[in-house]
């Protein structure tokens, strides 16, 4: 959209032209991938090609990829496929916390929101699953997933990681990281909404939580969303070839933005040492986050107060509260998430716009 500055890539990302073109072609392929005739086989070929593209991004084998309707379902499948207490952190996305309800065992997190592998180790006795996200959706913290997965492997406890915010933004090599289950969503990597994938490590005793047809090798019933899956495959391929190599640019933009924001006197939330490049969760003391997000929106700048699924609820961010932040401060949070299509000029324009908005809100609408 002309004039719009989109700084909400953790909520969703624009569909890439190449991804859209691949999907448009796939819409014409109407066969059911389970049908054995040629129309079905054409659709099956598209699904299998996409499966290989997703697997390649992760360093996995195609038979370890199960397509589903998005990140939320992938997390629900992972948690539903296991039994017993789930060791997790209160910083997880509602997709995990909701699916784990009634069997949660929380590890403590510090003010920086870091999940300590030793805390996980101490909570493992009798656990059925550990679920620790690769990157946090609100503050951008990157967890020590490799280390936590090794701790779980040693103890013989299964591990899931919600990598919805990490894929395409940081390299994920499942040949080197011994997680058993991992969730992905296409729309965070310039793919379509409503399609995702669960990685299930070969040999993992996966019990499908939903009964139905034999699709996805009996791991997720239901006729496949062929065009969506094609879009996800194309997005993963683009992520591998372009997004990951371009992350340095995003880091540079994020660093420029962060320096400018700090100069404006923001408080910065999250783990300052290990964060996702381009995710900046900040607060201007005395300025309500909701008011600032609305004022920015009127100027054509799209940001958010936190997770898209919980924003609009007017409740302060559960992630920031779990990090021990007082409610008043949590209500001041604004999340900017930079993407590879942003420019220095856009960042500078936002930095130039902010002082006037903050000043106005402090005078007329203090938090
Ligand atoms: C960390 C994380 N997990 C899961 C999800 C859910 O993914 P989807 O929107 O595809 O259901 C999101 C989306 O915001 C997310 O950020």
Structural notes for this entry:
- With 367 residues, the chain is α/β, with parallel strands linked by helices.
- The chain contains 13 helices and twelve strands.
- Helix 9 packs parallel to helix 13.
- The longest helix has 21 residues, at 38-58.
- The chain starts with a strand and ends with a helix.
- The mean pLDDT is 95.
- Pyridoxal-5'-phosphate binds at residues 70-72, 75, 93, 95, 133, 137, 162, 164-165, 185, 187, 196, 307-309.
Task: Please sum up the structure shown.
40% of the residues lie in helices and 12% in strands.
Annotation keywords:
367 residues; alpha/beta; seven-stranded mixed sheet; three-stranded antiparallel sheet; 13 helices; 40% helix; 12% strand; globular; binds pyridoxal-5'-phosphate
For the largest sheet, list the strands in their spatial order: 2-8-7-6-5-3-4
Helix content: 25-40%
What are the secondary-structure elements, in order, as H or E? EHHEHEHEHEHEEEHHHEEHEHHEH
Q: Kindly state the number of beta strands.
A: 12
Ligand roster: pyridoxal-5'-phosphate
Write the layout of secondary structure elements.
Layout: E1 5-6, H1 17-27, H2 38-58, E2 65-68, H3 71-80, E3 86-88, H4 94-100, E4 104-106, H5 117-122, E5 129-131, H6 145-155, E6 158-162, E7 181-185, E8 196-200, H7 215-218, H8 226-243, H9 247-263, E9 267-269, E10 279-283, H10 289-298, E11 301-302, H11 318-322, H12 327-330, E12 333-337, H13 344-364
Helix pairs in contact: 1-8, 2-8, 3-4, 9-13, 10-13
The structure holds pyridoxal-5'-phosphate (PLP).
Pyridoxal-5'-phosphate is lined by residues 70-72, 75, 93, 95, 133, 137, 162, 164-165, 185, 187, 196, 307-309.
């Amino acid at each position: 959209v002309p004039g719009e500055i989109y700084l909400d890539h953790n909520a969703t990302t624009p569909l890439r032209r190449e991804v859209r073109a691949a999907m448009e072609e796939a819409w014409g392929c109407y066969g059911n991938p389970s049908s054995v005739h040629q129309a079905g086989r054409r659709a099956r070929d598209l699904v299998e090609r996409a499966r290989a593209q997703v697997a390649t991004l992760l360093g996995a084998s195609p038979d370890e990829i199960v397509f589903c309707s998005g990140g939320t379902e992938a997390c629900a499948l992972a948690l539903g496929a296991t039994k017993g207490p789930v060791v997790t952190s209160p910083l997880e996305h509602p997709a995990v916390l909701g699916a784990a309800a009634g069997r949660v065992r929380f590890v403590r997190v510090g003010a920086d929101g870091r999940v300590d592998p030793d805390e996980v180790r101490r909570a493992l006795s009798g656990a059925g699953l550990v679920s620790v996200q690769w990157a946090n959706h609100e503050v951008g913290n990157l967890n020590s997933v490799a280390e936590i997965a090794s701790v779980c492997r040693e103890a013989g406890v299964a591990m899931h990681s919600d990598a919805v915010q990490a894929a395409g933004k940081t390299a994920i090599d499942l040949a080197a990281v011994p997680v058993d289950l991992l969730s992905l969503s296409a729309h965070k990597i310039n793919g379509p909404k409503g399609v995702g994938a669960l990685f299930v490590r070969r040999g993992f005793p996966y019990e499908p939580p939903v009964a139905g047809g034999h699709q996805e090798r009996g791991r997720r019933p239901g006729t496949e969303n062929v065009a969506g899956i094609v879009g996800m495959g194309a997005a993963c391929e683009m992520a591998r070839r372009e997004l990951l190599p371009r992350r340095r640019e995003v880091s540079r933009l994020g660093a420029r933005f962060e320096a400018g924001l700090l100069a404006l006197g923001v408080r910065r939330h999250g783990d300052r040492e290990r964060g996702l490049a381009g995710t900046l969760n900040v607060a201007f003391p005395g300025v309500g986050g909701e008011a600032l997000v609305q004022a920015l929106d009127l100027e054509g700048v799209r940001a958010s107060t936190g997770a898209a699924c919980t924003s609009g609820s007017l409740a302060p961010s559960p992630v920031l509260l779990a990090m021990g932040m007082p409610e008043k401060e949590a209500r001041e949070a604004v999340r900017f998430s930079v993407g590879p299509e942003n420019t220095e000029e856009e960042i500078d324009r936002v930095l130039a716009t902010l002082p006037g908005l903050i000043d106005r809100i402090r005078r007329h609408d203090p938090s």
